[in-house]
Amino acid sequence: MTNRKLFIHDLGLTGTIPALGIAIAIGAILRFWHLDLKPLWLDEIITAIFSLGKNYRDLPLDVLFPLNQIQEIFAFQPGVSCPQIAENLANYSTHPPLFFCWMYSWLGFLHPLDIEWMAKLRSLPALFGVATILAIYGVNRIAFSPTSGIMAAFLMALSPFAVYLSQEARHYTLPMLIITLALFLLMQIQQDIFHKQRLHFWVWLLWAIINSIGLYVHYFFSIAFIAEVATLVLLIYRGKSNILKLRQVCLYLIIFTCSIIISFIPWVLVIVSHLRRSETNWLPSAHHVEPIYQTLITWMLMIITLPVENQPLLIAIFCSFLMVVFMIWAGWQVLPNLKLLWLKSTTHLPTFTLLSFTFFVLLQFLFIAYLLGKDITVVPRYHFVYYPSFCALLAASLEKIKIPKFVFLLVGLISCIFVLSNLAFQKPFQPEKVAQNMNFEPAVPLMLVVGYDNYQDVAGGLSFALALERLRSHEITSQLQKDSLVFLDKAADFSTFSNKLSQISMADISQFNLWFVGSSMRKRDYPPKLTLTSGKTTCNIEPTQHYRTGQFPYQLYRCNNS
Q: Per-residue pLDDT for 448 more than 70?
């Protein structure tokens, strides 16, 4: 209690409220602030579809329907079981089922409440994000000290990276929480082996259960599991002469590691089929040292995130410069203290454990990037796998230095404000920007045509349509009642697509704008003219209104009924 009061005083947080409670409160406010502000993007649409107990065949494809009815697609569907959700994911997606089952139960629990459905969808990941603050406190408390635990809690609470992940309707904060809990148990196992010289069966059992759950939450959890086992093996090998119950330790490691692997066998055939799906082939191949500097950039984003994306060039350069300067200063502050943690006998083992775990995760990242040809380092959010150990080591390094830790927390808070204001960690494919471009003539009725090659194109089109409906519903106009949306399969050939398009009837509207989203199409691939209603409606291309966001180009056609 004395140490806690001293640390609260050290942070300037005097009073009766414990520092941990303040960290959790701040973290909760940041994670739940304006959950529905940013539009859903492609991956979050996929989460919504499967978390509502549906699959892609439940979507209105090849059918024209009113844009203002799009939210009916995302209505909660009661009476769906977890095995049904797992079957949908096995057949139509590339994810394990547990997160989606829990999300379905959570949405069912919130269903009677009058809350925006996008906020409901994002609230469970935000809740897991808050729980991770408490979990990282536990890791550093048992590994280093209670004051180090408090510092870790504040760093997690004020991390722009963690806040960003917590406001994603995706399975990132749940596996991050489970990894943090696994690290907590790993620390307990390490202490039992080397300090207490006795083994607690229940600790190993909990470690096995936590890891088994994690494997059914996210495939990348397997990277963390391998890093945990490798760390334990390395710990045992380095300290074998100091372990009194060496044979029992090795036996426990073998038994519980095998039990974790066996628990995942029912899903092995599914994961093999998922690895062959086209949805896993979008990652680029690694070139030269790209994975190295992309990883370093992500480390920077975990601590400081200023407005760089889609900003004027001068602002982007200035903010990038500030971020690099801060990271150089941060390294100058942290590395000497990290070295002291390594050299000090009382903190060497936990430091070694966290560094070893981080090293083995990064080693696997490089293996996947260079040898398997899928550079996962290019995606900052995938670095959630080792963020808990990164945060724990950073907090332990800052524990004894007063001014720098205040600077880190202040910079973290400022960065979180930029994230919450949609100035940093913007949603991929920018649905809100696409909607603004398409809505350049609010008074004119609009048809959105999404040509899709696969179901991911459908999810991308739905994200644009949701943002567009949200924007146009705020316009003081009755034109929204005439807006429409249609998804047409263009995978076979374009002539078939054109034939489907020509059957669409818009005879009751004399003039409207047609936006054609054609995944992976080039500007020259768009025909100069489209026809609807068996030739009665002619749509001419508008050359000045062509845009592209990622893999999604979109082109305006002006349509008139003859």
A: yes
